[in-house]
Structures are given as structure tokens and as C-alpha cells.
Specification:
This protein is α+β, with helices and mostly antiparallel strands. It contains 16 helices and 6 strands.
Length: about 475
């Protein structure tokens, strides 16, 4: 007779199976979420009472609430103690993965930028005087044309319910105040200003609002000037890198695996050095070597009577330079992977082929390459995926340049999708448009997902998983 044990939430024995795992994750997620929400509320309250409070105070609150909440939850669910080892992982997952994804998706549908940052616009402050009842502000002069409502960027003509930012003489701590209405060059506040605060200036609040699909319409509306050329080069760069690095690394790996080659240990050591040197150093070195005027490559061409090549100044040559430098950085990995894969092939196969009269080339094409195919498939797919978002070499070698006529200033000749989004978000040429960069990031995600699915299907990964 089989006895079925009923699970109780107050039991010390943890639940089993998928149901138990999901229940434990749900309880831990609620604990972390509640601590984060309450910590955020407490930090906001602290900021209002103590404006000079440090920003990291929210972290102190959250950790303190977690320390208090964990024993309380353990009293309610004694078995959850066995799952507390997941708590640090969930915290880091929420902070460094889930939160950035949520913010990126949220910003993609707003107009969030350096101009619309949600903070006060200190560049257009206006002198202001406060009335005796401390409820009315009068501007000496409106900094911009269009009237007071246009200057304050009010949602309505009366500005009722909108926010204005006030400064004292030191202008160290801005104070936000709600407006009840405007009249001419005067602002009526919803509440009186504190007696301890002497208003000398005011400015508007650069709010950011939801704009729906406006960012995506802008991207696809100007696709020929940025999205299409950048996407095509991204695919060409990733595919070209895979082809060049694989051919070069495969050839060297097969040659150096030959046990009859003298000094092959020395050759291996020398050829693996580009992989051992940090890529940041190698890329900066190549940037100096390929300098059109002072680089040693063009100096050598000059000694041979050849014309200098604009390696980094011409759109086509810049793309060639990126591929060549990436070849220098990537072929040692492919060479090492080839030699590791070759060590798994039985030598008896080559001996039998030699007895049958097969040449060295026939052995390579008939034995080596077919047996390496299965080992190299995941390597090639991962290499393509890595180089599809290989921001480092683009930024360090060319910074996405040079510029191309007919393309936007944020999409240079060697910009890939990721560097294009970076330029849009953080470069002055992109106006620090974080919302547009977030929309680009979402497009990159779906493109990468689509290409990965095609690659996996072509490689038969799904078929192998089903089997």
C-alpha cells in the first residue's frame, strides 16, 4: 500500500518536483520584490526629509529589509531555509539582468534623452521673485519665446498640476513645486514655499513621456540611412570573421598537428601569442601600425614605392582593416580548437588510408574535415553570435568611422548594430537619445534571436535535441 505524503506550507520538509521549485522561486521573488519596493519608498521619503542623503542609501535599505524579512519568511515557511542559497543569485539576477531589460523595454516607448531626462533644465534658468504670501513667483524675463507655458513645457495652457523647479542663491539643491496656474509672467503655486527657502531662480522640468511606437517609426523611416547598411555590414562582418578565422586557424591547426613537423612546439607558442596578449593592447597597437601617415605599414609601402593606403580613413579599407585585425585576434582560438579536435581522431584511420594509397590531401578531405564538422559546428555558431555584437574591436579600432555620405552621423562605415546603438545613446552626435537607443537594442534582440534560430535549424541542433 502506497502512502501519499501531503505537503504543508508550515512543514520543515521542502516540496518536491517542479511545483516545489516554482513555489520556492515565487516566495523568494516576493521577498526580494517587497524589499526592493519598500527600500525605494524609504529612500524617497529620506530624500524629501534629508535632501543631502547619499544615493546608495536605497541599497542599505534593501539589504536591511532582506536581512529582517528572511527570518520572518522562514517562520511562515520553515522549508524555505533550504532554498535561501538561491537568494543572492536572485538578487543579482534581478539587479543586473531583469531590471536592465525592463528599463530598456520601457525606455524604448518614451522620449527619454539627455534633453528629456526627467530632471531640471539648468541651461534655461530664469530670475524670479517670490511674493510676500510665498505663493506667487514673478519672472523678470522669459528666456525663450512662446510665452510662459511654452517655456515651462506645460501639458496644459494653464500649467495646473505641472511642476516647476526652484533654486536659492547657492543653487545647490533644487526644490520642485507644483503649479496651480500661470498669468502673464507670474506663476501661482499650489502650496506655499518654505520660509527657510529663498527663491532666486526657477527653471522647467524636462519630463519624458510615452511616445508609443515613434522611436521605431523613426528607425524604420530612415532605414536606408542607418538600419539597413549597418545591419548588412554587421552580418558581413560576423560572417567574414567566421570564414577567415576558421580557414586560417584550421589550416594552421592541421599543419602544426603534424607530428613529423620539426619545432612545432615553438611555432605553436609563437602563433598563440596574439591570443595571450589582451585585445585592448593588440587593437591599439594595430591602430598605430595602420595609421595612414605615421603607421609602419604605410612606411614600409613607401619604401617599396607603393602608395599609402587609407586603412582607417576610407570606408572600404576601414572594413578590410577591421576584418584583418579581427583575424589576428581570432585565429589562435580556431587553431587551438582544431588541434584539440584532431587529438580525438584515431590515428588508425590515417594509417588505413595510407595503406589504401590515399594522399595527404585526400586524408584531410575524407577523414579530417568530416570528423571536425560536428566539433566545429557549435564553435562556428558561437563565434558568429559573438562577433555579431563584437563592440570592442569596432570602438577601439575605428570608433565606427569613417563617416559615409548619405548615412546618419551615428552610423559610420564600420558601425555594427551595437556600436550604432551606443553612439545614439552616449555620443554627442546622437544627442544622447536613450529612448532611440533602447528601441535599437530591442531590434538587435529580435534580429539576433532570428539569426540564432536560423543557425540552429541549419546546424540541426533542434533535431539532435528532439532525438
Amino acid at each position: 500500500m502506497t502512502v501519499t505524503r501531503r505537503f504543508s506550507l508550515r512543514s520543515a520538509v521542502p516540496p518536491e518536483g517542479t511545483r516545489g521549485l516554482l513555489l520556492a522561486l515565487l516566495i523568494l521573488a516576493v521577498l526580494v520584490g517587497a524589499a526592493a519596493f519598500l527600500g525605494w519608498q524609504l529612500s524617497g521619503l529620506t530624500a524629501r526629509l534629508w535632501p543631502q542623503s547619499p544615493p546608495y542609501l536605497i541599497l542599505v535599505y534593501v539589504l536591511g529589509l532582506l536581512a529582517l524579512g528572511a527570518p520572518l519568511v522562514a517562520r511562515l515557511f520553515p522549508w524555505i531555509v533550504n532554498w535561501y542559497y538561491l537568494l543572492p543569485a536572485l538578487v543579482f539576477l534581478a539587479a543586473f539582468t531583469i531590471l536592465p531589460v525592463v528599463l530598456t523595454v520601457n525606455y524604448a516607448f518614451t522620449n527619454y534623452s539627455a534633453q528629456n531626462s526627467g530632471g531640471p533644465d539648468s541651461a534655461v534658468r530664469a530670475e524670479a521673485t517670490l511674493s510676500a504670501d510665498r505663493r506667487t513667483l514673478t519672472l523678470g524675463e522669459i528666456p525663450e519665446e512662446g510665452g510662459l507655458a511654452a517655456y515651462l513645457k506645460c501639458k496644459t495652457k494653464t500649467c495646473a498640476g505641472d511642476t516647476v523647479v526652484l533654486y536659492d542663491e547657492e543653487a545647490s539643491v533644487p526644490v520642485r513645486a507644483q503649479m496651480a496656474g500661470i498669468s502673464g509672467q507670474s506663476i501661482q503655486l499650489a502650496q506655499t514655499v518654505a520660509e527657510t527657502f529663498a527663491v532666486t531662480q526657477l527653471t522647467r522640468l524636462n519630463r519624458y513621456d510615452r511616445v508609443g511606437l515613434a522611436n521605431f517609426r523613426e528607425i524604420f523611416g530612415l532605414a536606408s540611412q542607418a538600419l539597413i547598411p549597418v545591419f548588412l555590414w554587421t552580418v558581413a562582418f560576423a560572417f567574414g570573421t567566421v570564414v577567415l578565422n576558421t580557414l586560417f586557424g584550421l589550416t594552421l591547426g592541421i599543419l602544426l598537428y603534424n607530428k613529423r613537423l620539426r619545432g612545432r612546439a615553438i611555432y605553436r607558442t609563437l602563433l598563440i601569442l596574439p591570443w595571450a596578449v589582451p585585445s585592448v593592447i593588440s587593437i591599439q597597437m594595430w591602430k598605430s601600425l595602420l595609421d595612414q601617415q605615421f603607421g609602419i605599414v604605410n612606411k614600409a609601402f613607401g619604401l617599396l614605392g607603393w602608395a599609402a593606403v587609407p586603412w582607417l580613413g576610407d570606408p572600404l579599407w576601414a572594413k578590410v582593416s577591421v576584418l584583418l585585425v579581427n583575424l589576428w585576434l581570432g585565429f589562435p582560438y580556431m587553431m587551438t580548437a582544431t588541434m584539440s579536435a584532431l587529438s580525438t581522431i584515431n590515428d588508425d584511420l590515417y594509417e588505413a588510408a595510407s595503406i589504401d594509397g590515399a594522399s595527404r590531401w585526400q586524408q584531410i578531405t575524407g577523414i579530417t574535415l568530416p570528423l571536425l564538422q560536428k566539433s566545429f559546428t557549435p564553435i562556428l555558431l558561437s563565434t558568429f553570435a559573438f562577433n555579431f555584437n563584437n563592440f570592442g574591436i569596432i570602438y577601439l579600432l575605428t570608433k565606427g568611422g569613417p563617416s559615409v555620405e548619405g548615412q546618419t552621423s551615428t552610423a559610420g562605415a564600420t558601425d555594427i548594430l551595437l556600436s550604432w546603438g551606443y553612439n545614439t545613446a552616449f555620443a554627442s552626435s546622437g544627442g544622447q537619445n536613450f529612448a532611440l537607443a533602447s528601441a535599437i537594442a530591442l531590434i538587435i534582440f529580435f534580429l539576433t534571436l532570428g539569426i540564432s534560430l536560423v543557425n540552429f535549424r541549419a546546424a540541426g541542433v533542434f533535431k539532435e535535441a528532439r532525438e
